[in-house]
């Protein structure tokens, strides 16, 4: 289809990737975001090969390689530093045809903003509703400002306003029963080698460091915790020191060296798989469609896959927008739902929902064949649209 006008709500990873793909297809694209200033949620993202392939397709391969970290292997270690498993990731790269690139979220968002055009993103533009006719879709913003196009894409995150229109109801967020702390630190061999992703596990908790561009590590901690706890930012180092007391030296050094004021503290939520991703000329993408816990590292990648598939179906039909969106829904609904549920199950295993299952997982890590881990990662990656 030619000469479409596309209205995207949300300037996160999914919204920007969709904007780039649709603009490259020749469509008129506007992106609107409620924020006065774009600040990514979280410090880093594990951008696996399926997401990188979408960026390659958009002509951003060299740029993502420059800002991504070189991750050649991953290690699981116990909280007292016993090596549980060591996985060489080079066979994964050979199997799927692309290196993963862990990346700082700010760097990724700046890359996408530059590719789309910062001047084309309308900030301080809060969407409060959507309307449709047979031929158009209209986004309604605060102040009764309206923007009409051929379709509206809801890429407005886990608290999506557009989702209410698509589903016809309020979707409750599901608390995953744990808190995640994350941030960036300078790379230091005292923590782990600079091309290694290390995950320490024990006591139903985990601590991890992953290489990103700029000679830095993206770190994250996770611990089961009742909903509603709060800690002042300046006290986050002390909070982590108490929670991870007795853990191995690299974890202690990380806690000592992190900047508590630059450390995010997030209660993690997901949403149940949705019955529908579209309504007429309105479509959901990214976290608005399938918000997931981060335990598979596929949240951002799935948003990028959404963008690729949506652009593909809009370009390859002349039947109409509604038909293209139905094909998008068919292509994306089961894949994203399965990954949300798989991530949820893994979250429960990691964070001690049932202690005996978590202990079984620790024991399994010692016996697991690294080739099986590579094959499991490859299966997720190769099930994407650019396999």
Salient structural properties:
single chain, 387 residues, alpha/beta, FAD/NAD(P)-binding domain, 7-stranded mixed sheet, 6-stranded mixed sheet
Describe this structure in words.
By secondary structure, the protein is of the alpha/beta class. It has one domain: FAD/NAD(P)-binding domain, CATH 3.50.50. The strands form four sheets. Strands 5-4-13-14-15-12-16 form a seven-stranded mixed sheet, sandwiched between helices. A six-stranded mixed sheet has the order 7-2-1-11-18-17. Strands 8-9-10 form a three-stranded antiparallel sheet, with no helix packed on it. The two termini are 25 Å apart. The mean pLDDT is 95.
Distance between the termini: 25 Å
Name of the CATH superfamily: FAD/NAD(P)-binding domain
Question: How many domain regions?
Answer: 1
Largest sheet: 7 strands, mixed
Query: How would you describe the shape?
Result: globular
Overall pLDDT: 95
Tally of helical segments:
13
CATH class: Alpha Beta
- How much of the sequence is in beta strands? 25-35%
The counted number of beta strands is: 18
Helicity, as a percent range: 25-40%
Instruction: Classify the secondary structure makeup into a structural class.
Output: alpha/beta
Radius of gyration: 21 Å
């Amino acid at each position: 289809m030619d000469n479409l006008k596309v209205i995207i709500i949300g300037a996160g990873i999914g919204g920007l990737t969709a904007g780039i793909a649709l603009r490259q297809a020749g469509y008129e694209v506007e992106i609107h975001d409620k924020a006065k200033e774009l600040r990514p949620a979280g410090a880093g993202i594990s951008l696996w090969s399926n997401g990188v392939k979408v960026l390659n397709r958009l002509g951003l391969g060299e740029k993502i390689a420059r800002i991504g970290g070189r991750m050649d292997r991953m290690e699981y270690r116990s909280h007292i530093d016993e090596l549980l498993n060591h996985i060489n990731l080079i066979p994964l790269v050979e199997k799927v045809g692309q290196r993963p690139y862990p990346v700082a979220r700010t760097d990724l968002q700046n890359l996408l903003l530059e590719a789309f055009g910062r001047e084309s993103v309308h900030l301080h533009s809060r969407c409060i509703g959507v309307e449709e006719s047979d031929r158009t879709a209209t986004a309604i913003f605060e102040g009764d400002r309206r923007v009409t196009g051929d379709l509206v894409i809801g890429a407005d995150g886990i608290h999506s306003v557009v989702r209410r229109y698509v589903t016809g109801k309020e979707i409750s967020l599901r608390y995953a029963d744990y808190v995640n702390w994350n941030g960036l630190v300078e790379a230091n061999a005292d923590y782990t080698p600079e091309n290694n992703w290390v995950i320490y596990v024990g006591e139903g908790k985990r601590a991890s460091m992953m290489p990103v561009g700029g000679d830095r590590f993206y770190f994250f901690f996770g611990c089961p915790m009742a909903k509603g706890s709060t800690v002042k930012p300046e006290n986050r180092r002390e909070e982590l020191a108490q929670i991870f007391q007795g853990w191995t030296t690299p974890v202690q050094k990380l806690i000592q060296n992190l900047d508590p004021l630059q450390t995010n503290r997030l209660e993690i939520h997901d949403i149940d798989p949705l019955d529908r991703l579209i309504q007429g000329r309105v479509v959901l993408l990214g976290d608005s469609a399938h918000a997931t816990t981060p335990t598979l590292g596929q949240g951002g990648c799935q948003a990028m896959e959404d963008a690729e598939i949506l652009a593909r179906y809009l370009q390859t039909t002349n039947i109409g927008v509604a038909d293209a969106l139905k094909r998008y829904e068919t292509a994306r609904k089961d894949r994203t739902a399965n990954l949300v549920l798989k991530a949820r199950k893994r979250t429960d295993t990691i964070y001690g929902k049932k202690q005996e299952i978590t202990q079984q997982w620790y024991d399994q890590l010692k016996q697991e064949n690294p080739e099986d881990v590579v094959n499991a990662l490859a299966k997720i990656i190769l099930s994407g649209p650019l396999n």
